[in-house]
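Appendix B, record 7
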Amino acid sequence: MVCRYVDWGPNSRPDTEAFINEAMASAAGALNLAVTLDNEAIGAGAVSTASGQHACGELGYAMNSTCWGRGYATVVAGFLLDLGFSDLGLQRIEATCAPENTASRRVLEKSGFSYEGLLRAHKRTATGRRDSLLFARLATD
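Structure tokens (predicted):
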């Protein structure tokens, strides 16, 4: 999996398995899924509660570069949004992406998210810190 726009990886298969196991163990207030095509993992997605008190959550997804541009991330985002609002009872779901990741920005826009601003030096990466674009969608949108 190409990790151009995420703050982790690339990971070995054992690293990925450990990450999945850890995510599943701490899944309270979160819905995690593996995205498969023809029984092969092509990506992952999650929606989680960031603040139970405020009914706010976070959405994330990552797709194998061989599957970019085929609409899979948009389907995953829509599915997880529905679950976040219905099953987790969230009223607001946020998502971020790297400013240069125009494909992810488009996924969020197609999924009904609104751009809310720039988070400066938001994520630590292997080469330093990077900014993020903040998007959000409300249950009432």
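Remarks on this record: The longest strand covers residues 40-51. The beta strands are 30-37, 40-51, 56-63, 92-97, 114-125, 128-138.
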